[in-house]
Amino acid sequence: MSSLYKKIDFEQELNLGRKAYDDLVGQWWYRQSVNSAHLKAYRTIVKHARSLFDKDPKVIIDYGCGPGHVLTRLYKSFPKSEIIGLDGSSRMLELTERRLQQIGGDFDKRVLLVETDLPNFSLSLPKADLLVFVFPNIVVRGDDQPYYDAHGYRKRKDRAVAKYLAHAREKDPEEETVVDEPEVLLDSLLTAKVISRNLRKLLRRGGACLRAEYSNADRSELTKLVQHRQAFEEGSLKKSLRGTKPKRLFKLLYSRYYRSKVIEDVYHQTRDESDKTGGYFLNGLKAV
Fold first, then answer.
1. Strand order in the sheet with 82-87
2. Does domain 4-139+193-222+248-287 fall into CATH 3.40.50.150?
3. Segment 106-142, tens digit of pLDDT
Protein backbone atom coordinates (compact mmCIF):
# COMPACT_ATOMS: atom_id res chain seq x y z
CA MET A 1 0.00 0.00 0.00
CA SER A 2 1.48 3.35 -1.03
CA SER A 3 1.52 6.35 1.25
CA LEU A 4 -0.64 8.42 -1.09
CA TYR A 5 -2.31 10.06 1.90
CA LYS A 6 1.00 11.72 2.84
CA LYS A 7 0.87 13.64 -0.43
CA ILE A 8 -2.68 14.92 0.10
CA ASP A 9 -3.57 18.17 1.80
CA PHE A 10 -7.01 16.97 2.91
CA GLU A 11 -8.15 20.38 4.09
CA GLN A 12 -7.35 21.92 0.73
CA GLU A 13 -8.73 19.05 -1.32
CA LEU A 14 -11.99 18.78 0.63
CA ASN A 15 -12.63 22.47 0.02
CA LEU A 16 -13.46 21.35 -3.52
CA GLY A 17 -16.62 19.77 -2.14
CA ARG A 18 -17.96 16.47 -3.45
CA LYS A 19 -15.73 16.68 -6.54
CA ALA A 20 -12.73 15.98 -4.28
CA TYR A 21 -13.68 12.31 -4.59
CA ASP A 22 -13.24 12.47 -8.35
CA ASP A 23 -9.52 13.12 -7.93
CA LEU A 24 -6.82 12.58 -5.26
CA VAL A 25 -9.13 12.03 -2.31
CA GLY A 26 -11.09 9.53 -4.38
CA GLN A 27 -7.90 7.65 -5.25
CA TRP A 28 -6.96 7.54 -1.58
CA TRP A 29 -10.44 6.39 -0.52
CA TYR A 30 -10.59 3.63 -3.12
CA ARG A 31 -7.24 2.25 -1.94
CA GLN A 32 -8.48 2.32 1.65
CA SER A 33 -11.78 0.68 0.75
CA VAL A 34 -10.17 -2.43 -0.72
CA ASN A 35 -7.86 -3.26 2.18
CA SER A 36 -8.62 -6.25 4.41
CA ALA A 37 -9.90 -4.18 7.36
CA HIS A 38 -12.50 -2.41 5.25
CA LEU A 39 -13.61 -5.51 3.40
CA LYS A 40 -14.13 -7.32 6.71
CA ALA A 41 -16.12 -4.34 8.04
CA TYR A 42 -18.33 -4.31 4.93
CA ARG A 43 -19.13 -8.00 5.40
CA THR A 44 -20.03 -7.38 9.05
CA ILE A 45 -22.26 -4.41 8.19
CA VAL A 46 -24.22 -6.28 5.52
CA LYS A 47 -24.59 -9.28 7.82
CA HIS A 48 -26.17 -6.95 10.40
CA ALA A 49 -28.45 -5.51 7.72
CA ARG A 50 -29.58 -8.99 6.73
CA SER A 51 -30.33 -9.88 10.36
CA LEU A 52 -32.82 -7.00 10.61
CA PHE A 53 -35.24 -8.47 8.07
CA ASP A 54 -37.03 -11.80 7.73
CA LYS A 55 -38.10 -10.83 4.20
CA ASP A 56 -36.27 -8.65 1.70
CA PRO A 57 -37.19 -4.99 2.21
CA LYS A 58 -38.77 -3.33 -0.80
CA VAL A 59 -36.31 -0.41 -0.99
CA ILE A 60 -32.76 0.00 0.35
CA ILE A 61 -30.76 3.23 0.12
CA ASP A 62 -26.97 3.36 0.41
CA TYR A 63 -26.33 6.99 1.37
CA GLY A 64 -22.84 7.97 0.20
CA CYS A 65 -22.25 4.63 -1.50
CA GLY A 66 -18.70 5.42 -2.68
CA PRO A 67 -17.16 2.72 -4.90
CA GLY A 68 -19.95 0.29 -4.07
CA HIS A 69 -18.47 -2.28 -1.71
CA VAL A 70 -21.49 -2.23 0.60
CA LEU A 71 -24.01 -1.64 -2.17
CA THR A 72 -22.92 -4.67 -4.19
CA ARG A 73 -23.04 -6.84 -1.08
CA LEU A 74 -26.56 -5.57 -0.35
CA TYR A 75 -27.49 -6.35 -3.96
CA LYS A 76 -26.40 -9.97 -3.51
CA SER A 77 -27.82 -10.38 0.02
CA PHE A 78 -31.26 -8.93 -0.79
CA PRO A 79 -32.12 -10.43 -4.21
CA LYS A 80 -35.69 -9.06 -4.21
CA SER A 81 -34.93 -5.51 -3.07
CA GLU A 82 -34.61 -2.32 -5.08
CA ILE A 83 -31.23 -0.76 -4.25
CA ILE A 84 -30.56 2.98 -4.58
CA GLY A 85 -27.03 4.30 -4.33
CA LEU A 86 -26.49 8.01 -3.68
CA ASP A 87 -23.10 9.69 -4.02
CA GLY A 88 -21.62 13.03 -4.96
CA SER A 89 -18.75 11.65 -7.03
CA SER A 90 -19.18 10.54 -10.62
CA ARG A 91 -15.92 8.59 -10.31
CA MET A 92 -17.18 6.61 -7.30
CA LEU A 93 -20.44 5.80 -9.07
CA GLU A 94 -18.53 4.60 -12.15
CA LEU A 95 -16.62 2.19 -9.91
CA THR A 96 -19.89 1.00 -8.36
CA GLU A 97 -21.42 0.34 -11.77
CA ARG A 98 -18.31 -1.53 -12.86
CA ARG A 99 -18.57 -3.79 -9.80
CA LEU A 100 -22.24 -4.47 -10.58
CA GLN A 101 -21.39 -5.36 -14.18
CA GLN A 102 -18.83 -7.86 -12.93
CA ILE A 103 -21.46 -9.49 -10.69
CA GLY A 104 -24.06 -9.55 -13.44
CA GLY A 105 -27.69 -10.49 -12.92
CA ASP A 106 -30.58 -8.05 -13.08
CA PHE A 107 -28.79 -5.05 -11.58
CA ASP A 108 -30.01 -2.81 -14.43
CA LYS A 109 -33.58 -3.46 -13.22
CA ARG A 110 -32.99 -3.40 -9.46
CA VAL A 111 -30.25 -0.80 -8.91
CA LEU A 112 -30.50 2.96 -9.35
CA LEU A 113 -27.34 5.06 -8.98
CA VAL A 114 -27.83 8.79 -8.42
CA GLU A 115 -25.12 11.44 -8.51
CA THR A 116 -26.17 14.19 -6.13
CA ASP A 117 -25.06 16.65 -3.53
CA LEU A 118 -25.66 15.26 -0.05
CA PRO A 119 -27.72 16.14 1.86
CA ASN A 120 -30.47 16.61 -0.72
CA PHE A 121 -34.00 17.21 0.54
CA SER A 122 -35.55 17.40 -2.93
CA LEU A 123 -34.76 13.86 -4.12
CA SER A 124 -37.84 12.19 -5.58
CA LEU A 125 -37.34 8.62 -4.41
CA PRO A 126 -39.53 5.91 -2.87
CA LYS A 127 -39.29 5.79 0.91
CA ALA A 128 -36.71 3.26 2.03
CA ASP A 129 -37.25 0.38 4.44
CA LEU A 130 -33.50 0.27 5.11
CA LEU A 131 -30.89 2.99 4.79
CA VAL A 132 -27.17 2.41 5.34
CA PHE A 133 -24.69 5.20 6.07
CA VAL A 134 -21.19 3.74 6.24
CA PHE A 135 -18.05 5.63 7.34
CA PRO A 136 -19.58 8.97 6.38
CA ASN A 137 -17.50 11.88 5.20
CA ILE A 138 -19.99 14.33 3.75
CA VAL A 139 -18.07 17.32 2.38
CA VAL A 140 -19.56 20.68 3.34
CA ARG A 141 -18.38 23.89 1.71
CA GLY A 142 -18.88 27.38 3.07
CA ASP A 143 -21.28 28.35 0.29
CA ASP A 144 -23.52 25.41 1.24
CA GLN A 145 -24.50 27.14 4.49
CA PRO A 146 -27.77 28.74 3.27
CA TYR A 147 -29.00 25.28 2.27
CA TYR A 148 -28.25 23.87 5.71
CA ASP A 149 -29.91 26.90 7.34
CA ALA A 150 -33.08 26.17 5.39
CA HIS A 151 -33.20 22.52 6.45
CA GLY A 152 -32.86 22.58 10.21
CA TYR A 153 -29.53 24.21 11.06
CA ARG A 154 -31.36 27.23 12.54
CA LYS A 155 -34.08 25.32 14.38
CA ARG A 156 -34.38 27.00 17.78
CA LYS A 157 -34.58 23.89 20.00
CA ASP A 158 -31.83 22.01 18.19
CA ARG A 159 -29.61 25.06 18.27
CA ALA A 160 -30.14 25.56 22.01
CA VAL A 161 -29.22 21.96 22.81
CA ALA A 162 -26.25 21.98 20.41
CA LYS A 163 -24.96 25.19 21.96
CA TYR A 164 -25.03 23.62 25.41
CA LEU A 165 -23.26 20.48 24.12
CA ALA A 166 -20.65 22.56 22.32
CA HIS A 167 -19.75 24.64 25.37
CA ALA A 168 -19.97 21.90 28.00
CA ARG A 169 -16.72 20.28 29.13
CA GLU A 170 -15.86 17.17 31.12
CA LYS A 171 -15.63 17.48 34.90
CA ASP A 172 -12.43 15.46 34.79
CA PRO A 173 -9.97 17.24 32.45
CA GLU A 174 -8.30 13.90 31.65
CA GLU A 175 -11.54 12.73 30.01
CA GLU A 176 -11.79 15.80 27.76
CA THR A 177 -11.60 14.88 24.08
CA VAL A 178 -12.64 18.17 22.49
CA VAL A 179 -9.92 20.32 20.99
CA ASP A 180 -12.14 22.49 18.78
CA GLU A 181 -13.43 25.89 19.80
CA PRO A 182 -17.11 25.84 20.89
CA GLU A 183 -18.30 27.59 17.73
CA VAL A 184 -16.54 25.02 15.54
CA LEU A 185 -18.08 22.16 17.52
CA LEU A 186 -21.49 23.85 17.41
CA ASP A 187 -21.28 24.00 13.61
CA SER A 188 -20.25 20.34 13.45
CA LEU A 189 -23.15 19.24 15.67
CA LEU A 190 -25.78 21.17 13.75
CA THR A 191 -24.42 20.15 10.36
CA ALA A 192 -24.49 16.48 11.36
CA LYS A 193 -28.08 16.88 12.58
CA VAL A 194 -29.16 18.31 9.21
CA ILE A 195 -27.68 15.25 7.49
CA SER A 196 -29.61 13.02 9.92
CA ARG A 197 -32.77 14.94 9.02
CA ASN A 198 -32.11 14.04 5.41
CA LEU A 199 -31.63 10.36 6.29
CA ARG A 200 -34.94 10.39 8.14
CA LYS A 201 -36.73 12.05 5.21
CA LEU A 202 -35.61 9.22 2.93
CA LEU A 203 -36.96 6.52 5.27
CA ARG A 204 -40.50 5.39 5.92
CA ARG A 205 -41.73 5.59 9.50
CA GLY A 206 -40.42 2.53 11.31
CA GLY A 207 -37.69 2.03 8.72
CA ALA A 208 -34.21 0.94 9.78
CA CYS A 209 -31.08 3.05 9.58
CA LEU A 210 -27.70 1.35 9.96
CA ARG A 211 -24.81 3.72 10.64
CA ALA A 212 -21.16 2.68 10.80
CA GLU A 213 -18.99 5.41 12.31
CA TYR A 214 -15.36 5.65 13.32
CA SER A 215 -14.71 5.58 17.05
CA ASN A 216 -11.77 5.23 19.41
CA ALA A 217 -13.90 3.26 21.89
CA ASP A 218 -17.16 1.40 22.44
CA ARG A 219 -20.12 3.75 22.67
CA SER A 220 -20.87 2.54 26.19
CA GLU A 221 -17.34 3.52 27.25
CA LEU A 222 -17.74 7.11 26.10
CA THR A 223 -18.54 9.75 28.69
CA LYS A 224 -22.14 10.88 29.09
CA LEU A 225 -21.30 14.18 27.40
CA VAL A 226 -19.80 12.48 24.35
CA GLN A 227 -22.73 10.05 24.20
CA HIS A 228 -25.14 12.99 24.24
CA ARG A 229 -23.25 14.65 21.40
CA GLN A 230 -23.35 11.45 19.38
CA ALA A 231 -27.07 10.98 20.01
CA PHE A 232 -27.80 14.59 19.08
CA GLU A 233 -25.93 14.26 15.78
CA GLU A 234 -27.74 11.07 14.77
CA GLY A 235 -31.12 12.40 15.94
CA SER A 236 -31.69 9.81 18.69
CA LEU A 237 -31.31 12.10 21.73
CA LYS A 238 -34.62 11.90 23.60
CA LYS A 239 -33.88 13.67 26.87
CA SER A 240 -34.09 17.36 27.61
CA LEU A 241 -30.89 19.28 28.27
CA ARG A 242 -31.16 22.56 30.16
CA GLY A 243 -34.94 22.33 29.79
CA THR A 244 -34.94 21.94 26.01
CA LYS A 245 -35.65 18.78 24.03
CA PRO A 246 -34.21 18.54 20.49
CA LYS A 247 -36.05 17.15 17.48
CA ARG A 248 -35.98 13.35 17.72
CA LEU A 249 -35.67 11.49 14.43
CA PHE A 250 -34.61 7.98 15.44
CA LYS A 251 -34.75 5.49 18.26
CA LEU A 252 -31.41 3.81 18.99
CA LEU A 253 -31.98 0.05 18.98
CA TYR A 254 -28.42 -1.13 19.58
CA SER A 255 -24.76 -0.25 19.17
CA ARG A 256 -21.99 -2.75 18.44
CA TYR A 257 -18.30 -1.91 18.60
CA TYR A 258 -15.58 -3.48 16.47
CA ARG A 259 -11.86 -2.92 16.82
CA SER A 260 -10.52 -2.35 13.34
CA LYS A 261 -7.78 -0.66 11.38
CA VAL A 262 -10.44 1.27 9.46
CA ILE A 263 -9.78 3.93 12.12
CA GLU A 264 -6.61 4.75 10.20
CA ASP A 265 -8.83 6.55 7.68
CA VAL A 266 -9.17 9.20 10.37
CA TYR A 267 -5.46 9.22 11.17
CA HIS A 268 -4.59 9.84 7.52
CA GLN A 269 -6.65 13.04 7.63
CA THR A 270 -5.76 14.30 11.11
CA ARG A 271 -2.18 12.96 11.46
CA ASP A 272 -3.06 12.57 15.15
CA GLU A 273 -1.39 9.46 16.62
CA SER A 274 -4.39 8.83 18.88
CA ASP A 275 -6.46 8.18 15.75
CA LYS A 276 -4.47 5.06 15.00
CA THR A 277 -6.26 3.17 17.77
CA GLY A 278 -9.90 2.15 17.80
CA GLY A 279 -12.31 0.96 15.16
CA TYR A 280 -15.97 1.64 14.51
CA PHE A 281 -19.34 1.24 16.09
CA LEU A 282 -22.38 0.05 14.21
CA ASN A 283 -25.59 1.71 15.32
CA GLY A 284 -29.00 0.28 14.52
CA LEU A 285 -31.72 2.95 14.53
CA LYS A 286 -35.46 3.01 13.90
CA ALA A 287 -37.12 5.98 12.19
CA VAL A 288 -39.74 7.57 14.49
1. 111-115, 82-87, 59-63, 128-134, 203-215, 279-287, 250-259
2. yes
3. 899 999 999 999 999 999 999 999 999 999 888 887 7
